[in-house]
Amino acid sequence: MANADVWQIIETDEFYRQFLRKDSGEDIKNEAIIQGFSVAEQLKKLAEGISLLDKELQRQVLENHEDLLSQATWIEKLEGVLSVMQSHVQCLLSAVERLRTKIIEPFNKVEMQTMMLSNLHATSDLLRRVTRIQHLSKRLNALMQAGPAGTIDIIKAAQSLSELSQITEDVDLSGLEVVEEELRTIRLHRNDVEKQTRLMLNQGLQSQNQTQVTTAVQVFSNLGSLSTTVSQVMEGAKQRVTRSIKEALDVQTLTHVATADASKTRGAPGRAAMPSPGNASMFRSRLWSALEHLFDSSIYTECSQIELLQRVLLKKVRDLSLVSHIQNAAYIDLLPKDQQELTSNFWLEVSTQLSRQLIQASQSASFLKQTLEGEYPKFLRLYLDLCKRLQAVGRSSDQGEIILQDAEPQAGKTAVFELNRDVVVAFENAYLSRSVSRLLDPVNLMFSGEVVPSHEEVDSLIRTITSELSVSLVDVSLSRTVARNISKTVRLFCLKCEQMTVTGGEATQVIDSCTPGQLTNISIANLLHYLNGQVARVVSNMKNSLPSDTISIVLESLQNTDELTRGIVNPILSSITDAIEAIILTMHNEDYSMGPVPNASTNMATRKPDAPCSLYMKELQDFISRAVKNYLAVFQNQDVVSKCCVSVAGRCLELFLRHACLVRPLGEGGRMKLAADFAQMELAVAPLCRQVSELGRPYKMLRSFRPLLFLTVEDIQACTALGDVIPYSLVLLSLFARGPQELLSPHQSANWSVSRFSQWLDTHPSERERLELMSGALQRYQQTVRQRGETKFHSVYPVMVNLLERGMKTAGK
């Protein structure tokens, strides 16, 4: 039976299969199968299974007996090899033990010799140190016993102490009797040198002696205590500044002194209380004296000393950097990074302390607060003077630019001592608030009634503005802020004036003499002009002292007065314009159809017209002259009025040209009369402007159009002024009058009145739209001619069509 058959029998048999499975889930099922057999049957099945396994084992042994014998033989050989290896291992262990015995003894001897050598080296180094200490101690004693320590001696002593410090810093010399006396002497000499050097440093800083400070810095650098000494100097200066600030702002002291002075004056005992009205001025005087001493003496002295110290320190760094980069780095290591900017750090601390103490003092004493707020410019001047003096010290110092390794270049020294706004911001805001009130209150007061303010009231406001600008000269920022307040004042003044301005028909009539409303508006406009002139005069007088942006702010605010004046003048000018248009419209009531004038010159383009002035032109001249005299000349701000009148004069010329082109019928004598009107028109608008030539394009059109009245249509077509000076639409409009009655003008073709057509032209300034309207009139004429069966157009028609095409091309560009 094959091996596969035996296993197949066992796996397929339910009884045998239970011995092959390890699943716990099949336990219940297996028990059920076993219970299905009796004990005898189970034993029989087991016996049969064992028999099958025995047979299978025998079969496997018979088939593989050679392999089994071979494996048994190799096991015996392996046991022999292991026995040989065990003997070799024993030999190796014995050899290792013998080698260990030979190595340990020399190692112990070498170790002992090494320890002895190390001890010899330590002893030798200690002896060298002791010898050097004794030598340096003798030299130090000689230097210190030579008399009062001079500059050279103290530097040499510091060098010796520095070397002694390096010698003793890594070794314990306690217990060595040979150097105990020297070490004690060295400590005494070190204390003595530090004491004298500190005294030298203080004296040098107080007297601004750079040589003494440099020597002291060198000594402390040699002693290795430079950083500590600098910190002590900084801390001492901060404490002195803080104490000086507190003393200057001590209300009790100031009050006591002021009261004592008042008592001496009155001969009566005083009280240590808040200043009374009688001694308030003494209190302020004492306060300002204390603040002047604080800024001019205490803070300036301490800041200049710190400036000198930093100057010496950075000069030392620069000198070392020229010698060796490594030495420079080593020196910088002795000086912390925050001490490389002593001046800026100290100034920041001074500003912080000053700000804190001022706030505390003002909160505890209302009178002190009122004094600083009311006379803020004086306080600011003291502060700015201090900054300027310190900046001058920084500029004059021969410090140079120092660029440290792994550090950014230092900023310019003049930027260190800048005004810190945190110190003055609280008092500045209060002062500016009062300044605004001082500026705005007069404006509100002068406009409290219904009467236009007088020049005297404006002069009072001007004096206030002058005073505010004068006291703001101490600081650019303050001056700029005051200028903004003045700008607010001018705007408020303009707003009040605008509220008083009269509007409606009473303010715009131009028929009768000036109404009360117009007189009020004229007074307001003249008052605005007076304010403008006075403020401009004040600024002009201070232009050498005021910053340019301050001047700009004030002058820009004055433009509001011109704008309001324009707002008052423009309604009147609008009424004048309407009246001018109404008068020009009466041109069409004139008769321009008369024939040629007898004995007239053939060169009509150059001949001066002999025709009399038209009635409407006479009326126009009289009206403009009267309007200018009664309604415009009374305004004092003639610059604004003249600028506004330019547009009115230009409008007058445009209307005249427009309606002159609409005149129909127009005969040869009518052209002469119309040419005379052209000449008279220049005289009519002359009162509205300084020079008629300044009217620009309208004036050029007037002068260029007049010769066209006497030219033929062919000459008009060749005129070079067309399209450049004179619009094509205007020339076409004038040519309608030269055509037959069937060639209706554009307004006649549209069945409009002349006034309505004029309004349409005002609302349609586009040249293309105007030409399109005239094109419609020409097309209507063309249709009329064809309907009549005529084969020929009037001679003016092709010229007009040609001009229309040229105009449309120009308008399309």
Keywords:
mainly alpha; 31 helices; flat; 75% helix; single chain; 813 residues
Number of helices: 31
Helix content: over 70%
N-end to C-end Cα span: 116 Å
Q: Beta-strand percentage?
A: under 5%
Low-confidence segments: 263-273, 322-334, 398-414, 600-610
Count of the separate structural domains: 6
Roughly what is the average pLDDT, rounded to an integer? 82
| Count of extended strands | 0
Biggest pleated-sheet summary: none
The gyration radius over C-alpha positions equals 58 Å
Structural class: mainly alpha
**What is the overall shape?**
flat
Structure description:
It is built from 31 helices and no strands. By secondary structure, it is an all-alpha fold. The radius of gyration is 58 Å and the shape is flat. It has 6 domains: 3-63; 69-190, no CATH class; 225-419; 426-563, no CATH class; 590-706, no CATH class; 711-813.
Describe the structure concisely.
The protein is mainly α.
Any chance you could write out the topology, listing elements then pairs?
Blueprint: H1 3-12, H2 14-17, H3 27-35, H4 39-63, H5 65-144, H6 151-168, H7 177-207, H8 210-223, H9 226-248, H10 251-266, H11 280-323, H12 325-334, H13 342-364, H14 366-374, H15 376-396, H16 421-446, H17 455-471, H18 476-500, H19 505-508, H20 516-541, H21 548-585, H22 615-632, H23 638-662, H24 668-685, H25 697-705, H26 713-717, H27 728-735, H28 746-749, H29 754-763, H30 767-788, H31 796-812
